[in-house]
Design goal:
There is one protein chain. By secondary structure, the chain is mostly beta strands. The protein has one domain: Porin. The chain is built from one helix and 18 strands. The chain has an 18-stranded antiparallel beta barrel. About 3% of the residues have low confidence.
Length: 315
């Protein structure tokens, strides 16, 4: 009996020591939908993460405030190690985001986030950051390679993806000259559909930026596990329909702890003979170092309106 008690105490002490040695962090995002019809809904996501040196684990706890139901899902769980000072190997479940995000991207605004399970090798080569890894497991046929960095004053990113005999790729380029900046994103999915975007921005004055953009979808471009695949639930207009062309005008303003953004979309489809409009408005206020409150209002092409109130708290 005493021996069993001793073993239990030793095990408990080891467990407590392990827990105490971790670096802990937590953040909470509460989002309430306030539509014009008055049928309100709210969800809260709490993420708790811990790091033990090269080991990282984080879990999302999502609560539906109407039904009271809570779901739990491991968000990230991976280990990283240095490869003789030349590269970093990461294996496990991790959040990936490369380039413009049209092919692979995080989804921090939406309550349902996307991750990839596989391996990633990151290294710096000639001033460029290179990532090579596998998608959805460790099968060699399902992989990616991303190269990003600066060249001749321009930021460049090239992403190549393979899934068996199918392939996808994205090329992103941005360049700033004085108060003007240009961004170009050209993407092709696994079905050879294209998604291209061109944006010109101008810094009108301190803290005030205006931009115009043109985005087109040819062939029904679509990729899973991106911030664009969920539409307004992820805080953006999402992928356009096949043949759509979106011309957008945006204004963003920041003054201290307050930020404001507005975008008007004009979408037309010459083949279908259709034309529609959509808009988004965001207002944010940094309450303190750990808390932020935001208001986002979206008007979709089908005249459906969404109003989201968000409270984010980090510890």
């Amino acid at each position: 009996m005493k021996k069993n008690l001793r073993n239990l105490l030793v095990l408990s002490l080891g467990l407590i020591t392990t827990i105490a040695s971790a670096q802990w962090s937590a953040n909470s995002t509460t989002r309430a939908d306030n539509p014009d019809e008055g049928e309100r809904s709210a969800e809260q996501r709490i993420n708790v993460s811990a790091d033990w040196g090269a080991v990282h684990v984080s879990t999302d706890y999502t609560l539906d405030m109407q039904s009271g139901e809570m779901t739990t899902e491991v968000y990230e769980a991976y280990v990283s190690t240095d490869l003789m000072g030349m590269a970093t190997l990461t294996a496990g479940k991790q959040d990936l985001s490369f380039g413009s995000g049209a092919l692979i991207s995080s989804n921090d605004w939406g309550l349902e986030r996307y991750t990839n399970t596989g391996g990633d090798i990151a290294l710096e080569l000639g001033g460029f950051n290179v990532n090579v890894g596998t998608l959805n497991g460790v099968a060699q046929a399902n992989n990616y390679m991303n190269l990003g960095g600066s060249f001749a004053g321009a930021d460049v990113n090239i992403l190549m993806m393979n899934d068996g005999d199918n392939s996808a790729h994205g090329y992103d380029l941005s360049y700033a000259m004085g108060d003007f900046s240009l961004a170009v994103s050209m993407n092709e999915d696994m079905n050879e559909a294209t998604y291209n975007s061109y944006t010109i921005s101008y810094n009108v004055m301190d803290n005030l930026t205006a931009s115009v953009s043109q985005t087109s979808n040819e062939g029904g471009f679509s990729m899973d596990n991106t911030a664009l695949s969920g539409g307004w639930d992820n805080g953006n207009i999402g992928y356009l329909n096949d043949g759509d062309e979106d011309r957008a005008i945006s204004i963003s303003y920041a003054l201290g702890d307050i930020s404001l953004g507005y975008t008007m979309h004009n979408i037309d489809n010459e083949a279908a003979g259709t034309e529609s409009e959509a808009s988004s408005m965001t207002l944010g206020y940094q309450l303190n170092d750990n808390a932020h409150v935001g208001l986002a209002r979206f008007a979709d092409v089908d005249e459906t309106e969404y109003t989201w109130i968000t409270l984010s708290i980090g510890l």
